[in-house]
Each structure stands twice: as C-alpha cells, then as structure tokens.
Amino acid sequence: MAQCEGPGFTGISELALEVVDLAASERFYGEVLALPLVERWEDRGVAWFLVGDRTRLGLWRPQIGLAGGRGGLHVHFAMHLSEASYTSTVNRLALCGARLEEHLFADYDDSRAAYINDPDGNVVELWTFNVARQAPAASLTGSATSSDAERAG
Predict the structure, then answer these.
(1) pTM for the predicted model, two decimal places
(2) Cis geometry, peptide bond prior to residue 136 (ω within 30 degrees of 0)
(3) pLDDT one-digit tens code per residue, 109-138
(4) Is the pLDDT of residue 150 over 70?
(5) Per the count of CB atoms within 10 A, which of 9, 15, 23, 136 is most buried?
(6) What's the half-sphere exposure (Cβ side, CA atoms, 13 Å) at 61?
(7) Which of 88, 93, 147 is nearest to 124 (CA)?
(8) Quick one: how far is CA 19 from the chain centroid?
(9) Alpha-carbon dihedral of residues 133, 121, 25, 16, nearest 10 degrees?
(10) Is the CB of residue 130 less than 8 Å from the CB of residue 79?
C-alpha cells in the first residue's frame, strides 16, 4: 500500500463499546467515572458520554451500525487524567468501592495509571501520560521498542 499524506487527525471522536447491561454501564460511566451523558438513542439502546473536550464514548447494546460497525467487546482503552487530579480521582473511586490496579511507567515520564473494569469486562485505564508528547517523534515505520510492546500488552 502506498504511503499517503496524513489527513491531520486531531484525536479520536468516538469509541463504541458493546455492552450487555446498558443501565449498569450507564451507572458505571456516569456515576462512578463521573462522565457527562451527552446523548441517548432509546430506540437503539445507545448512550453517549463525553470524555474530555472532543471524544465521546458510546455504549451500545449488541447491534450492527453504519458501515457494518459494531461496538468493541472486552476492550482495553486509556483515558488521560492529569497528574494533578490522579490521586484524588483514584481515592474517590476506591471510596466508591472500585477495585483498582495501579502501575507506574518509568519509561513514560514516570506516569501513573489506574486500571478498572467496567460491568462488561472492558479495561478502562486512567493514565497520566500525555501521549501528545510522542508526536512528531512517533515512527511511521511500524517498529516498536520492547517498552512499547510491553505497554501495549
């Protein structure tokens, strides 16, 4: 495949997760993680939550959407959390009864991450590393270092 000039992406607009129990997932993302609900499609069993200032997270009952799209099931994804709010957020989640697993990433500016499972088994990572720091140094060759491979796993 020929290499094409980049289109100038500015981030991810949407990520859709397939959920079994929409109400339980809405409670988790809306009440536990405190994400604002921005839209609900009652007729299709879909709820959209805003993550940051430009990304929305869709929770979908099993279905096929436009262009054959389906929500991911048993997904791992990371949401950026500022270093300044990390400790208070993790403490608040723990007080709410959340089971968290925390890790320190020395190779990524000593960033911290807390992992929590949503009601459908998706792994939600709350990570303090600003991935924008990797641009434009990120290689387009597809090669990864051992730390990159470990991080992705």
Answers:
(1) 0.78
(2) yes
(3) 999 999 999 999 999 999 999 988 887 654
(4) no
(5) 15
(6) 11
(7) 93
(8) 15
(9) 50
(10) no
